[in-house]
Structures are given as structure tokens and as C-alpha cells.
Amino acid sequence: MTLPGAPHLARRGRDLYLEDCQLATLAQQHGTPLYVYSQASMLDALAAYQRALAGRPHLICYAMKANSSLAVLQTFARAGCGFDIVSGGELQRVLAAGASASKVVFSGVGKTRTEMRQALEAGVRCFNVESESELALLSQVAVELGVRAPVSLRVNPDVDAGTHPYISTGLKGNKFGIAHEQALAVYRHAAQLPGIAVRGIDCHIGSQLTEVAPFLDALDRILDLVEAIEAAGITLHHLDLGGGLGITYTDETPPSADELIAQLLARIDARGHGHREIVFEPGRSLVGNAGVLLTEVLYLKPGETKNFCIVDAAMNDLMRPAMYEAWMGIVPCTERDAPAVTWDVVGPVCESGDWLGRERELAVAPGDHLAILSAGAYGMAMASNYNTRGRAAEVMVRGHQATLIRRRESAAELYANERLID
Ligand SMILES: *Cc1c(COP(=O)(O)O)cnc(C)c1O
């Protein structure tokens, strides 16, 4: 039996397996909290995008902020994938994983002069510029280096993505992108700047989108602009349609990447833009369902109004529930014969917001291992050291093979950069 949204996660008898690796065994071998990823799941998710775009110029740029562990980046780089970065740190990281800068696009509202210089020196494919002042600074930095910066403007199409306000980015009043009404004027300005080479247009309207309609709305708004910009004599080579495709955490039914792209391409062709290179920047949909977070039950604390199941993973390991009130599946690694009880699954961190799941029916005992599902995206990447907790270890599985791709952080490493005063 496979679990929702995660084709490589299945129960065999009482035991949960990711590919051919038994999760309870991995938890014992490596300790908990432990992130475990299926490489096949990541490659399958990428293949769906690649298949849908086969036969036309395209580049898939994995939005690496979703999970930037080196072995994850290496997996995608070897499969021919490009990358969407949002900082100089991400640039260094992705190059260390073996990626080519020529397949990197650089997004983000607050690029610094130093980051711009690093990215120009590395030779990134494109900067997704989010404001007029950023454009001016980028031109200046490029001129100083004697180059032209390849640029797309990130346009805010003002469409409602119908997702959580913290992960919605394409509405007016949002910090991201250049307003649709101003975009043509900013393109005209960009075309005059000595350090800028206009390459394309970009948008990204939000995250965990589960409908096709907002993507199509945004596309129409972008194509209207493309037509106006080209009528003004400025050539655009590529259309970057961002990321944002959702995954199944509970009962969501997002379109598959194939379905979404087929509909977008049909619209692009119908409007006569089929010759353009298409770029996508998927993050969550490439890695989210590929990962689980394993945790051990420390204590059971039944109460009058609530029962608490206290586990060794916490909000510092997995922020999504505390930050977005996100619902994530929680299941035992090994099922036991006992009646289920309703538990709030909480971590050891000293915050009431430190919960991983509320009101979950589970048959558990101290020492059992639980798997938190769909934890491959915005899990480890958002982990912190709050409460001087070292970040979790990570394992990548490939069939029967399990490889430790990051060892657990020690407490001494956490204060290694600190100094006592005299
Ligand atoms: C975060 C982000 C993405 C990826 O979003 P997902 O929802 O993870 O697919 C793509 N592009 C930009 C500019 C982003 O900030």
C-alpha cells in the first residue's frame, strides 16, 4: 500500500519503507530526528516536467531554497536540471554540488552588490530583476565588470493564487516583482541601460497552488505584456513561468506537472508564442513528496483536555506547522496492535507553537518511531538551531542503498564561531 502523494513510500506488512529501505531500521542506525529522501521520487518528479516540455526549447530550474542539501542538488544537476537561486550563498552551494552557472537563474527582491558581482563573474544565465532600483544597480555593477547582465523582469501579474497569504506572491500589495502596469516602462528603461541585456520575462505567483486556473490567468497577463514589449521593439527570448505547483499533504488534488504544462503550452501555442524558450522554477513539487522526517516518541502525556505525544523532532527541525499551520501526515514507522488514541504531536522546544500535528489518531508507545510525511521541501532547508539543537542528519535512499548525506550537527559546532569576552 502506498501513501498519499508519495509513490515510493509504502507499507510492507507493519513496516514503512521508502524505496527498499525500512525506515525504522534507518532511524535506529542513524538516530533521530532524521530526514530521509527517495532519489527515485525526486527524479520521477523532474521527469514529469521534462517529458511535458520535450521537443521544445526549455529549462527547468529547481528552486533550490526548497531543499538545498548538496546531494539533492547533485541529483538534479546530473539529471540535466538548472537551478533558481535567491542568494550568493545558494550560488556557492550549487556550484559546489557540480552545477553549471550557465543553467542558474537568480531571483529575489534584495540582491546585494556583492551577490550581483559574484553571479556575473560566475556567468549565471539570467537575473530575475524585481525593481527599478535593482535594475539600475545591476547595470552599474555589470559596467564596472565590463559585461552586460542578462535580465528578465519579474512581473507581478496581480492574480490571486488562492493559497496561504504567506506563500502568495502574485497579488498587488506584495513585496515581489514589478507591477504589471509599470512593466512596459521598466522594460523600455532596461533596454537603454548600458549594463543590461534584456533576455526574457518572469513571474512567480505563489506556492502550494492546487489549481490550474491561477497559472493560466498569470500566463495570459504575461503574454499581453510580451506582445506590448515586443511591439515597443524589445525582443524577449524566454518566458519564465516560475514555480508554485502544489503537492498532496492530505486531500489536496493538484494537477500533475504534465497536466499543468500541457494546458499552459496549449495557451502559449494558441496565442502564437510557441517558439519561445520556456523556463519553470519548481521547488516543492520536485522534492516535497520525496522526503520524510523520522522522529522518536519520547513521552506520552495524557491530560484532561489534551493528550500530548512528545517526540524528539521540533519546530527547529520542521517549521511548516508552526509557521504556516501546515498539516503534515504523521504515521508510525512500525504499526502496533493497540487501540488508537488522539494525540497532539509536539516537540521539546520551549514554545507553545512547537507542534508537528494536532489531534492525530495514533497507536504509539515511547521508543516508537514516527514518520512525518511530505517533508522533503521547506523542511531541512528552514531548520534552525533554536534551543541549541543541532540540525538533523539526512539520508538519501536509492533502492536498497541508504547514504548518509549530512551528519548530525554537534553542539560544539553550534558555538564554534563564538568567543567569550575578557
Ligand atoms: C520559492 C520560489 C520558487 C519555488 O516555489 P515552489 O512553490 O517551491 O515551487 C520559484 N521561484 C521563485 C522566484 C521562488 O521564490
Describe, in short, the structure shown.
The chain is of the alpha/beta class. The protein contains twelve helices and 22 strands.
Descriptive tags:
422 residues, alpha/beta, Lyase, Ornithine Decarboxylase, Chain A, domain 1, TIM Barrel, 2 domains, nine-stranded mixed β-sheet, 22 strands, 29% helix, binds pyridoxal-5'-phosphate, pyridoxal phosphate binding, diaminopimelate decarboxylase activity, EC 4.1.1.20, DAP_deCOOHase_LysA, Diaminopimelate decarboxylase
How many domains? 2
Shape: globular
- Distance N to C terminus: 61 Å
User: Main beta sheet: strand number and arrangement?
Assistant: 9 strands, mixed
Indicate the structural class.
alpha/beta
- Bound molecule types: pyridoxal-5'-phosphate
Radius of gyration: 23 Å
For the record, what is the CATH homologous superfamily label of the largest domain?
A: Alanine racemase
Roughly what is the average pLDDT, rounded to an integer?
95
What CATH architecture of the largest domain do you see?
A: Alpha-Beta Barrel
Number of strands: 22
Number of helices: 12
CATH class of the largest domain: Alpha Beta
Determine the CATH topology of the largest domain.
Answer: TIM Barrel
The unreliable regions are none
Strand portion? 25-35%
- The helix content is 25-40%
Subunit structure: Homodimer.
GO biological process, one term: lysine biosynthetic process via diaminopimelate
Catalytic activity: meso-2,6-diaminopimelate + H(+) = L-lysine + CO2
InterPro entries: Ala_racemase/Decarboxylase_C (IPR009006), DAP_deCOOHase_LysA (IPR002986), De-COase2_C (IPR022643), De-COase2_CS (IPR022657), De-COase2_N (IPR022644), Orn/DAP/Arg_de-COase (IPR000183), PLP-binding_barrel (IPR029066)
